[in-house]
Amino acid sequence: MGATMLQSAAFVLSVIGVLAVIAATGMNNWSTQDRQGNVVTSVYVYKGLWKSCEVATSGLTECRPFFTIIGLPGSFQAVRALMIVGIVMGAIASLISICSLKCIRMGSTEDGTKAKMTLACGVMFIIAGLCAIAGASVYANQIVSSFMMTTYNTEYSGGMGGMGMGGIGGTLTPRYTFGPALFVGWIGGAVLLVGGILMCLAFRGLVPDKSEFRAVAYKAPPQDRMVHDHGEGGRHDNQKYV
Questions:
Q1: CA distances from residue 82 to 7, 72, 121, 156, 192 in whole angstroms, order as listed
Q2: How many whole angstroms separate alpha carbon 99 and alpha carbon 197?
Q3: Domain tally for the chain?
Q4: pLDDT tens profile 24-73
Q5: Domain presence at residue 92
Q6: Of 12, 30, 11, which is closest to residue 185 (Cα–Cα)?
Q7: Which of 24, 106, 234, 241 is an S-S bond match for 185, by CB 3.0 to 4.6 Å?
Q8: Domain span at residue 43?
Q9: How far apart, in whole angstroms, are the C-alpha atoms of residue 86 and residue 84?
Q10: Residue 223 forms part of a structural domain
């Protein structure tokens, strides 16, 4: 009973993790424009894996998809690949885990087969979670590197009585920070990882117990047949036992 409940809980967590990774992959706000120091901005930009969107002061949002693949950085394409691999593996494992649930009887599937399917699903969920976490981490590393390269000093010490012009100066290159989609991807990957580990733990409880020694039934010959054989031939062949 405990293994069945553990398997069911792992299945629910894994499905939630897959849905979170799918949602994160489709979201457009993986990176958002950093508006710190810019009090008034006419355009607010945020980017995803597939589109780049701009929000005007009027509230109108315009999104443009990335039409090219060759022109995109290799690390950016790696993030796409990791998220897609995580989604595909998580979806396949979810379908297989439905058939492996012990509370669901499908045909004449044995408990040992279901246990093996549960272990395979657990490994696939773990790999899917690692892919999602790795993809979000690679994208976050790109944001941090770009942010550090475009950081400017707002405390300019020259002229104007020491007050400087750093408050209105600085670089014109926009800086980007973490978007909500990154956190959704991290959380989804972590939930997938936990669900996969629980699946692997449930495997031990689902394996049917097999006895090491197999009992062999021995049937003794009838007593009257033994007496009849002794009377006829006087032979003692039936006294040999195996």
A1: 26, 16, 18, 43, 14
A2: 18
A3: 1
A4: 999 988 988 876 655 556 677 888 899 888 887 777 888 888 887 777 88
A5: yes
A6: 30
A7: 24
A8: 2-56+72-151+173-208
A9: 5
A10: no
